[in-house]
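Tokens in:
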């Protein structure tokens, strides 16, 4: 897992690699670097580098294993039944995971931010080229798979610090097919709204866990993603430390 300092030092190397891949991956990665630096500056009295005198440090990882996710659930001592046959498998959202770690407790690990960036929709280009439309929904299906695991992992926390940015012609909000999928995926809460804390629950019944999902036709900029992500990550930091 990389620290924010390592991320910053290696940024050019990663940019070079991503230039051969999707520009979206590079953009969300650069946004993440900015979020980590913001958190370190905002909470400088508590957050430092790994191994120094500060109470916390921040790390980043692209993947989490099912084993890690199960350990997160087990740490709350509320569930007794588990299935362990796929512990080495991982989830890998495009934006990865920002983690809060302790310099004094090696077992302390909390998730500050999980982020995804999905592009969906080539039918506008296909129609210009005289080709037939393709079926919609592939990126959304992958998002749903990850979200199921993330919600299970965060079940016993009062927050779900997850955000997904989606863009492309399938998200023009003119076709209700995609919007209806997103609406159900977000437990019938709104999209294009920030949700961090769970809602509408209490000690006698389960909370709902809406997440922050922003979808539009235009591509997201680094600055736009940063502004949303830093709000969620800062909220999560305060939740865990206050």
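Residues out:
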């Amino acid at each position: 897992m990389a620290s924010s300092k390592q991320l910053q030092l290696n940024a050019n190397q990663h940019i070079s690699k991503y230039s051969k891949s999707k520009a979206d991956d590079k953009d969300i990665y650069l946004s993440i670097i900015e979020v980590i630096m913001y958190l370190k500056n905002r909470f400088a009295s508590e957050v430092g580098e790994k191994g120094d005198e500060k109470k916390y440090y921040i790390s980043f990882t692209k993947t989490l294993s099912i084993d890690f996710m199960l350990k997160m659930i087990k740490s709350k001592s509320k569930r007794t039944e588990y299935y362990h046959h796929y512990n080495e498998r991982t989830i890998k959202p495009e934006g990865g995971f920002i983690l809060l770690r302790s310099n004094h407790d090696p077992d302390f690990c909390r998730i500050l931010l999980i982020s995804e960036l999905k592009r969906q929709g080539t039918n506008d280009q296909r129609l210009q080229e005289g080709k037939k439309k393709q079926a919609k929904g592939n990126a959304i299906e992958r998002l749903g798979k990850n979200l199921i695991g993330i919600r299970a992992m965060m079940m016993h926390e009062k927050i779900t610090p997850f955000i997904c940015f989606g863009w492309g012609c399938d998200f023009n909000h003119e076709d209700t097919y995609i919007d209806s999928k997103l609406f159900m995926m977000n437990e019938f809460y709104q999209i294009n709204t920030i949700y961090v804390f769970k809602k509408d629950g209490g000690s006698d019944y389960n909370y709902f866990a809406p997440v922050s999902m922003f979808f539009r036709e235009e591509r997201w900029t680094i600055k736009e993603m940063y502004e949303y992500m830093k709000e969620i990550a800062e909220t999560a930091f305060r939740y865990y430390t206050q």
